[in-house]
Amino acid sequence: MSLKAFHIFFIVLSIILAAGFGGWAIRDFSLTHSQINLGLGIFSLIGAAALTGYLPWFLSKTKNTPAS
User: pTM of the prediction?
Assistant: First the structure.
């Protein structure tokens, strides 16, 4: 696996994990009303959104780089 392919895999995995944790934290906030969970959930969803924006930028910058 090339470094480029690993980087893409790691970005996608990070998006999934950040969005999943953010959703869980906000759901837990609705049950417990813990302000920490709300903050963590919002922060995680913002991170997932930032990574979602980073992925196309990375792909465009490495368009001419071979994947192997």
Answer: 0.89
